[in-house]
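User: For a teaching handout, I'd like to show students what a predicted protein-ligand complex looks like in token form. I'll give you the sequence and the SMILES for NAP. Please answer with just the structure.
Assistant: Understood, here is the input followed by the structure.
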Amino acid sequence: MNLALIGYGKMGKEIEKIAVSRGHKINLIIDINNPQDLTIENLQKCDVAIEFTIPDSAVKNYNICFEAGIPVVSGTTGWLGKKEEVFKKCVEANGTFFYASNFSIGVNIFFELNRKLAYLMADYSDYNVEMTEVHHIHKLDAPSGTAISLAEDILKIIPGKTGWVNDEIPLENELNIKSERIGEVPGIHTIKYESDVDFIEITHSTKSRKGLALGVVLAAEYSLGRKGILTMKDLLNI
Ligand SMILES: NC(=O)c1ccc[n+]([C@@H]2O[C@H](COP(=O)([O-])OP(=O)(O)OC[C@H]3O[C@@H](n4cnc5c(N)ncnc54)[C@H](OP(=O)(O)O)[C@@H]3O)[C@@H](O)[C@H]2O)c1
């Protein structure tokens, strides 16, 4: 495939390595220094666009990919307030949008484990649930997109929890997500159910960005020739 990389930071560079090792070609690289090259004409020379930038530019980047008629795979976090608008634009344009708050296969198995544990805990109101996420100091958003995905699943399953708060003292109906920013940590997510007598904790730790980048390239391969809103559940069939 011929790929466009929109965003050439830590993830963009890691994705490039994996994509090339799987036989793909990087046709277009867009970074903060050459936004003028992000044109419909240039995008149409590519099969799929991969977008990893910053929350402020993501939605604009998706729209131009929809206009160019090429699938866009994105993992940028922090723009989800505009999710409905983006999904609507994608469908209206008959486009393809593959979004994941986390592209690692391990994390997506962890998402499933989180749902299963929540179902097991749902009847035991003695346990309170909370979450901690740890990332590197360069991360712009908090809580992480992955933490929000985990929290949304918990809120659907645990009775009495109706919303989440980030680093605030939670009300009884709120799930607390603690965010820590330390060194170069690629990503740790822990969910803890605690009662007066014990606690149960599950943790996923990302060792490097390699697993994330592989998931992104697999998603790009999957997106080619497909239409609509795609997720890791489609790709992994879980
Ligand atoms: N879903 C997942 O699995 C996953 C995994 C890791 C990260 N993420 C998310 O992906 C995003 C990128 O992460 P990262 O670690 O690669 O961050 P990063 O190293 O800061 O890279 C972001 C890159 O985008 C560039 N950029 C900023 N505005 C742009 C624009 N308008 N057009 C094109 N490029 C632009 C930045 O350029 P400058 O540096 O020059 O500003 C930078 O090179 C973040 O939102 C992060 O939370 C998601």
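For the handout, you might add this sentence: The chain has two domains: 2-103+210-236, 105-205.
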